[in-house]
Amino acid sequence: MRKAIIFDFDGTLVDSEITIYQCFQTITNYLAPERVDYAKNILIGPPLRDTASEILGPNHQIQLDEFVKLFIEMHDEHAIKNTQPYSKVNETLKKLSTKGLSMAVATNKRYTPTIKLINHFNWQDYFTYIECSDSQNHIRNKDEMIQEILKHNNFNNAFFVGDTVNDGLSANLNQLPFILASYGYGRDQDWTKVNVKKDIQNLVTDPILRKNLGQAGRMYVKKYHSFKTAQYMFNSIYDKVLHNKDVDLINLFHPILGEYPNRSPKIKHPLVNNRIVDKSR
């Protein structure tokens, strides 16, 4: 059982879209006004310097340092005012903490505004580790931040929750099950190359899906983990070992070859190939 979760920050735990886009557009209008349309539609999530470089384009790279400097000044001043946790995030973090799950953050956001927001929302006791792009003396990508967290034993068996394709690919690269927060900034990206474990939004917004999954899970437990099932299993072992009966213990619960699974109807569930299907895509 997995006992740890690593979260992305912007687009996963907090909605900072308004603040970030306002900063991008204001600075671009000042430094390279013909590139404002790029600033309006740029993906939030990658490291600041990479995003600034893409916004400015090849003809304005000489202004990259100034762009980054202005963004830091403007963003940090307004970060708390215009950034809010997504719905149910406070309750979710509290419940996960109460259940004893270890939690960490791996974000391309800089350390100063990240800590500022975490303290503002009183989340400081929830996260064991907080890895930001500039936490060390060189800028790191998401892969490196995840690897740093995985050095700690209690995160060896963690999930990663994020909202962009880069988050998903980083989780896949580090062999972590990836949970997609599809309400975040990567909603219009191409996800075909990412192995997604679960989509949070489907479970949150679809009560019928939650109900059907819950009922299927309960039926599965009753069918395969009940006292009746245990009795059948041990009786079969006794028959094989003590009475030398022809009992195929290897396939005792095989869905096709086993006799026991076919005593009751097959459990129906909404999964396709063991995955939740996002009907909106």
Features:
11 helices, 3 domains, six-stranded parallel β-sheet, alpha/beta, two-stranded antiparallel sheet, 281 residues, elongated
Describe this entry's structure for a reader.
With 281 residues, the protein is an alpha/beta fold. Helices cover 45% and strands 10% of the residues. The chain contains eleven helices and eight strands. Strands 5-4-1-6-7-8 form a six-stranded parallel beta sheet, sandwiched between helices.
Summed over residues and divided by their number, the pLDDT gives a mean of 90
Fraction in helix: 40-55%
What CATH architecture label of the largest domain applies?
Answer: 3-Layer(aba) Sandwich
Give the number of domains.
3
The general outline is elongated
Strand order of the largest sheet: 5-4-1-6-7-8
Q: Indicate the low-confidence ranges by residue numbers.
A: none
Straight-line distance between termini: 30 Å
Query: In CATH, what is the homologous superfamily of the largest domain?
Result: HAD superfamily/HAD-like
Topology:
Blueprint: E1 4-7, E2 14-15, H1 17-31, H2 36-41, H3 48-56, H4 64-82, E3 84-85, H5 89-98, E4 102-107, H6 111-120, E5 129-132, H7 142-150, E6 158-162, H8 165-173, E7 178-180, E8 198-199, H9 200-205, H10 207-224, H11 227-241
Parallel strand pairs: 1-4, 1-6, 4-5, 6-7, 7-8
Antiparallel strand pairs: 2-3
Helix pairs in contact: 1-4, 3-4, 4-6
Quick overview:
The chain has 281 residues and is of the alpha/beta class.
